[in-house]
Amino acid sequence: MGVNTGKTVWNYFVTCLWEKHFDSKGRASRREFWSFFLCVSVLILLVLLICFVELVSGYTWNVRDEHELPIISMVLGGVVSIGTTSASKNVAIRRLHDWNKSSKYMFLCLLPYLGFLLLPLLPPLLGSGNVIGVLVFFGTITVLSFAVFAFLMSVAPTKGPNKYGPPTDDEQSSSGLIGVFE
């Protein structure tokens, strides 16, 4: 069981977004990482909800009378994406530092996406063949890459100081996701 620092999920989110936005040095606990990830996920779901409401209510912007675009959610989505991309990358790097690994391990999570660069080349290669099978294959690889990412971000921290600094205040002694939000 880790030390209770009294920080809430929201406190961790604000800390990652404002105080440590461009900071990839040091360590981030599992609690800090997953709190930030949860808040960003909620923000994305809110933008998707606003997009749905815009589309259902007809409050869209017509482009050449062909396409209807949900302009408010597009702007909000852009703001959320731009505002959280750097902070997300840096909290993930600090999370890797917590178990004494360099940021190069993040590339393990990106490897499956390199296959998507080949996706436009596959229909000519397959002809009218098994395009659905290829999409299922790439979808499975995507799910597996998220599983690898979740595992990497859930590994128990290095006990005591490591080459990236001293342990975080709320270092957890349990392994995996158990105990992250205790």
UniProtKB/TrEMBL annotation:
It comes from the Bacteria. InterPro entries: DUF805 (IPR008523). Keywords: Membrane, Transmembrane, Transmembrane helix. The chain crosses the membrane at residues 33-59, 71-93, 105-126, 132-153. Residues 162-182 are annotated as: Disordered. The keyword Transmembrane helix applies. Pfam families: DUF805. The keyword Membrane applies. PANTHER family: INNER MEMBRANE PROTEIN YHAH-RELATED, INNER MEMBRANE PROTEIN-RELATED-RELATED. This is DUF805 domain-containing protein. It comes from Roseibium sediminicola. The lineage of its organism: Bacteria, Pseudomonadati, Pseudomonadota, Alphaproteobacteria, Hyphomicrobiales.
